[in-house]
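Input.
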Amino acid sequence: MTCIRPSRGAALVFGLMFGLSACRGDPAGTTPALLVDPDPRTRAELQRVVAAALHDADVTLSDEALVRDSILIIERQRRLGPGGTRIDGREVQPPVQFQLIREGHGCILVQVGTDRRWPLPGAECAPVRN
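Output.
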């Protein structure tokens, strides 16, 4: 049986190629993003998309949603009885998470964990700066 060992030069070239490709970021050209100066139309579009993603749920979003953080967490509304106590007991379903990404020149809302995607054509977004 013959064992072929790569030369040190070949290993160095491979290591550099692999290392440099890792610095390029996501090969699909996507990056986490933030909304830039969202106007009422942009907020309404985001509200519609999130509500549709959650099967037409009644959703309330802050005016600051996706402005300071690229992650949007939606918690389920707690149902309260007449005395103000929760009807359902403890919440067993985790919150739903979305991430805003910039893909090319467009803004896309992605549901974390499912990779479902919704374009936000009326929105302007910029990559998150660390």
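Residues 8-23 form the longest helix (16 residues).
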